Amino acid sequence: MLHVYFETDKEVIRFCEHLFRCNKRIELYWKTHKDWGNHLQFERQLPVEELNEAVACSMVEVFVAHRLNQSFRSIIEEVFYYTNEEEIERILDLALWLFRGEDDESRFLLNGKDPKQLLLSTFLAHMEDARAVHFDSIVKFRLNGFREHLIQYVGLAIDEFKREEEHQEFVESLRKYITRKDSGVELVHVLQGKTFTFFKENGRQLSRLELRNIMQKEPLFLVGLNVEEWNLAPLIAMSPKKIKIYGEDPAEPKTLTVINVFQEKVEFEPSAHFPFPQYLKKNP
Which InterPro entries does its entry note (predicted)? Predict the structure, then answer.
């Protein structure tokens, strides 16, 4: 027989909901213990490994839902000494994004490690041959090794936060630069791709040689750009009054950077609205 204890009602409810989604054959008895809160009693009608896996997996769910935010926040404040609430919230968001590992960038930063799997292994290790498992006791006293991983994730989140700050400062410097710059260029059409393709208002494509000549006339080094950057630098050098970008992904990183720099001067439209279809036919 296995006994599992949770101090709070919301956590035991979350645990049971997830447990029955994992394995509908599990039977348990739920009562209140005067010292330990919610007491769940499991008959071992399942193989030990199967029951332990379901219980540990559900404990992971409870930890992520109810304990992870505060764990990250305490590390941000007590290990890295952040006190500004806005900064703490942004670092917390980034740490949670890393922990979830839902996109290629976060999985790359995690170097193939799955935080949930690490946490699951920790809970399973404390359940071996145990007759009684206290969730709060494990969280408070037995997760030191896992906390070290959380500290690493917060460190990565802080690195990402600093990169974002540097990028924002870079964007702000570009905004100031183009506001001081006069331009005779009314409109530039831009096609998304591995690198942008630029077109004059009359539909003629600007060649690399033309773009290089335009960029060489501008002191782009003052804002951290050079003539080998083929996406943002040409637009900064031309500083057109209006930019129309055509493609299928307005959230694509270099497109977002242009939008952040030029703001209301930029319009994004689907590729189907590109006004020079003869070019699209030649270059599908």
Answer: Spore_YtxC
| CA nearest neighbour of 198 among 268, 276, 209, 207 | 207
Q: In terms of C-beta density within 10 A (0-12 exposed, 13-18 middle, 19 or more buried), how is residue 281 classed?
A: exposed
4: closest CA among 70, 62, 47? 62
Distance CA 203, CA 270 (A): 17
Structure tokens at 209: 């040689």
2-6 β-sheet, strand order: 28-33, 37-42, 2-6, 132-134
Long-range CB pairs of 137-141 (<8 Å, 24+ gap) are: 138/59, 139/63, 139/67
* Structural contact between residues 243 and 190, judged by C-beta atoms closer than 8 angstroms: yes
Residue with tokens 């399973």: 124
Band (pLDDT 50/70/90 cuts) for residue 94 is very high
* Start-end of CATH 3.30.420 domains in the chain: 182-282
Distance of CA 30 to the CA centre of its chain: 38
Could you please state the CATH topology (level 3) that the domain comprising 182-282 is classified under: Nucleotidyltransferase; domain 5 (3.30.420)
pLDDT in tens, 149-204: 999 999 999 999 999 999 999 999 999 999 988 877 899 999 998 999 999 999 99
Q: Check whether 280 has a pLDDT greater than 70.
A: no
Give residues with Cβ within 8 angstroms of 227, minimum separation 6: 212, 215, 216, 220, 233
192 vs 197: CA distance, rounded Å: 7
Q: Quick: pLDDT tens for 114-164.
A: 999 999 999 999 888 788 899 999 999 999 999 999 999 999 999 999 999
